[in-house]
């Protein structure tokens, strides 16, 4: 048996040495974080592995936008599965908006009266959402008539991405690297709402089933599959469920704050996926309980160096 080695602050001069020390500690959250970092590094450096990044929760407003866009730019991520909200917040910044830290002492009634919306301790000006709405309608008006129906959501998001100029944008980088962005819950977002309102005046629709065909082709052509899953819910299920076609993921990391007692997928440990053929029996996987806006940057910094 290996002994628990205690953390030595003086020996931790970089993110890499910090993670290696966590690996030497080897137990509890320290061990899980270090093993997750090792697994993620393995999957993005394995040329035979098709790597997913799935995101639920406010990952873009929470500061992960550049980390994700750089992973895409460097060719380390092959597909993204995300909530519609993260797409909205990426576009909001690409169109000149921003996310701000809520000042201490301000309450929600004040935020509302001053034209701001809050996500935890992040706020966004309504004016930026108005600009977002104008840009989306202008984009939709620019589409050729043959594109107004039959596009899959991933094709739609690729087309938007090609119109952007912000190199920090996830959609910008994904479009230029031909990394598909799948968003099975796209309609449950401000973008989805604008697509609905636009469709009440002009003909427009997306083919969500087409994305499943695109995804099936990608999975079937992959020798191995891996996934870094931030949060749970629909994006986690869509990612894991798609790999049933190959008997499950070969590499998997989940970072979640949800608990397993309620039986929800969001809180389910990854080992549960083995029974559903969403995780290979011999897979390399780790579930980490914690805040992805803290832990994912550490894992990315370790994996990219």
Explain the overall architecture.
The protein is globular. The chain contains 13 helices and 9 strands. The chain has a 6-stranded parallel β-sheet with strand order 6-2-1-7-8-9, sandwiched between helices. Helix content is 47%, strand content 16%. The relative contact order is 0.17. It is an alpha/beta fold.
Describe the protein's topology.
Elements: H1 15-25, H2 28-45, E1 49-55, H3 60-73, E2 79-82, H4 84-94, E3 100-101, H5 108-113, E4 116-119, E5 122-125, H6 126-142, H7 153-161, H8 170-176, E6 181-182, H9 190-199, H10 208-221, E7 224-230, H11 233-242, E8 249-256, H12 272-275, E9 279-289, H13 292-303
Parallel strand pairs: 1-2, 1-7, 2-6, 7-8, 8-9
Antiparallel strand pairs: 3-5, 4-5
List keywords for this structure.
9 strands; 305 residues; 47% helix; three-stranded antiparallel beta sheet; six-stranded parallel beta sheet; alpha/beta
Strand order of the largest sheet: 6-2-1-7-8-9
Beta-strand portion reads 15-25%
The counted number of beta strands is 9
Regarding quaternary structure, what we see is single chain
Q: What helical percentage do the residues reach?
A: 40-55%
- Give the helix/strand class: alpha/beta
Measure the end-to-end span: 30 Å
- Which stretches of 5+ consecutive residues score pLDDT under 50? none
Q: How many individual helices?
A: 13
Instruction: Output mean pLDDT.
Output: 90
What would you call the shape? globular
Instruction: From the alpha carbons, calculate the radius of gyration and give it in angstroms.
Output: 20 Å
N-to-C SSE series? HHEHEHEHEEHHHEHHEHEHEH
Main β-sheet description = 6 strands, parallel
């Amino acid at each position: 048996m290996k002994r628990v080695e205690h953390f030595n602050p003086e020996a931790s001069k970089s993110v890499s040495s910090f993670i290696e020390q966590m690996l030497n500690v080897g137990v509890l959250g320290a061990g899980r974080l270090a093993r997750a970092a090792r697994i993620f590094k393995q999957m993005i450096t394995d040329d035979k592995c098709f790597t997913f990044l799935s995101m639920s929760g406010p990952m873009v407003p929470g500061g992960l936008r550049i980390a994700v866009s750089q992973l895409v730019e460097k060719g380390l991520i092959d597909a993204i599965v995300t909530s519609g909200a993260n797409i909205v917040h990426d576009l909001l910044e690409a169109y000149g908006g921003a996310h701000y830290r809520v000042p201490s002492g301000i309450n929600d009634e004040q935020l509302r009266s001053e034209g701001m919306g809050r996500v935890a301790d992040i706020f966004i000006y309504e004016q930026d959402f108005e600009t977002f709405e104008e840009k989306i309608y202008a984009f939709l008006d620019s589409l050729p008539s043959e594109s107004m129906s039959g596009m899959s959501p991933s094709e739609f998001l690729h087309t938007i991405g090609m119109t952007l100029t912000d190199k920090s944008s996830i959609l910008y980088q994904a479009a230029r690297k031909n990394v598909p962005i799948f968003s099975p819950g796209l309609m449950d977002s401000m973008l989805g709402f604008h697509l609905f309102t636009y469709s009440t005046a002009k003909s427009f629709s997306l083919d969500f089933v087409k994305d499943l065909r695109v995804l099936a082709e990608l999975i079937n052509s992959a020798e191995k599959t891996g996934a870094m899953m931030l949060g749970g819910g629909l994006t986690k299920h869509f990612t894991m469920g798609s790999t049933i076609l190959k008997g499950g993921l070969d590499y998997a990391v989940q970072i979640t704050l949800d608990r397993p007692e309620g039986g929800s997928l969001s809180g389910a440990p990854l080992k549960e996926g083995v029974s559903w053929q969403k995780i290979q029996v011999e897979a390399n996987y780790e579930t980490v309980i914690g805040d992805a806006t803290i832990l994912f940057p550490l894992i990315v910094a370790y994996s990219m160096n």
